[in-house]
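Lecture 7 notes: from sequence to structure.

We start with a single chain of 581 residues. Read the sequence below before looking at the structure.
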Amino acid sequence: MTPARIAVLAPDVADRIAAGEVVERPASVVKELVENALDAGATSIDIEIRDGGRALIRVSDDGSGMSREDAQLAIARHATSKIRDAEDLVGVSSFGFRGEALPAIGSVSHLSIESALGDGAGVRVEVSGGTLRGVHEAARRRGTTVAVESLFHNTPARQKFLRGARSEWRAIADLLHTVALVRRDVRFTVTHDGKEQLALAPARDLATRVAALWGADAADRLVPVDDIQGAIRVSGLVERPSEVGSGTRRVLLTVNGRAIRDTGLVRAAESAYRSTISAGLRPSLLLHVELPGAEVDVNVHPAKAEVRFRDRWTVERAVERAVRQALGTEDAAAGIGIVRGVPGFAPLGRALGVEILRQAPAATPAPLFDDTVPAPRDTPDVAVAVSDADAIVVPPLFQFHRTYIAFERPDALVLIDQHAAHERVLYERFLDAFEGGEMPSQRLLFPLTLHLSPAEAEMYEAEQATLQRLGFEGEAFGGSSLVVHAVPAPHPRFDAERCLRDSLAALTGDREPSAHARHTRLIATVACKAAVKAGDLLAPDEMRGLYLALARTTLPAHDVHGRATILQLGWGEIDRRFGRG
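Now the structure, written as tokens:
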């Protein structure tokens, strides 16, 4: 058999192969055309879709427009207005290059381009199946309109792989939501089969755009992020821990204004939620990363959907830090009838009973507790207080239902769940002790003797060193028995035997993948079992001490299971329920 000889493909065949790299489905065409419009400086973009994009895709913009010569060059392969030499590829900031995808799209559709540099005389270029059909004068306003009809009409095999109109439209809608979130300065209108689907005015911030796309409730579930670490800025919105798992998960990542996919950045953001949500839950993340163009390569993916960082570790740590800081602010606390800057609402304004200075939009969100006003010098150092809590004013507190600590402030009634709050306090103290030393413990006058099951005894032996750092000192005694000589003392009513038994029982059979994960799980479990319980009557000094201790934690708004420690009831909502609103 004679070997096949190498041959140069005919131009029309090469163009259709190139189209396969750019045009996977109608959403791919929409992406290219909308990004071309944005690169042309458009402030208003109108998009018309028919039959899920299979029959028609029309994108009109008010951008810079093209001359007659440029409009014809735009349908030529390798023609661009954005790149002149190889060095321009480094740190490129445009989405694509005007005309980059047009010849590929024109080879598998009926394509027309109308464009004008200014109001009045313009040009219309028509292409069908990759062949130029005509160039005509056209009267129009400044800007460009590109229409793509009968997509894949000359490639039946590709056409067969298109999904139904509803599925193709859904993919287009998802894409346009992403673009609208990235370019909040642009007005978008979108119609599908003659019905208006989106009408978005320019938005002042990301929360405003989210509210316009998905409703004010969706925006209210999110916490603002804004942090600068060196040359890296991370901003955006992330889901409040108490809301995670109760709605649709949405993820948007952008790097220097370009939407990308990056599992490493997602993992970094999710790691910031450790000890605030239950294992397996995945928060919504809408994050923008800005860094010098020379530090990121955007040309590692054909559709520019992935990037490569010069120093990935630094970028991921910046993302984790920014999200972690956001989860420790007042906006992260759960609320009913609390307004958080969504359009038509007023800002929250104050944190837990203390004055908060509202910062500029780009500044770090306000913390839950203010530490700028000295507290009375006679604040007692009770069991759940912290010795250095001398810079926070504690408002009048009262307990009800032996479960909640309450106080009022000008805009809300605030409730603290005493168990969840103390769990957060103890978790961070135990974690500090594990990482930097040992938790203070008290020697028992009469040692405890515990009779454990074989599985519990095995768990104690495996975690004995960690438990000792947390304040439990014991030794095996005759089979599965354990003699405990010292225990931590987090509060006067602490039941050491119950805490240790319940912790070992909860962890028996646990198979965390790493030693660090097992230790963290153990610390969280001990903190939960050691915390004051619902039903415990707290003295005024104990309530004040718990308030002060919670104020010193890094994530005061949530316990280690993702439950809220703090609930804010806006006075407006309370008035409404009583018919006063």
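The chain is about 30% helix and 25% strand. Keep this in mind for problem set 3.
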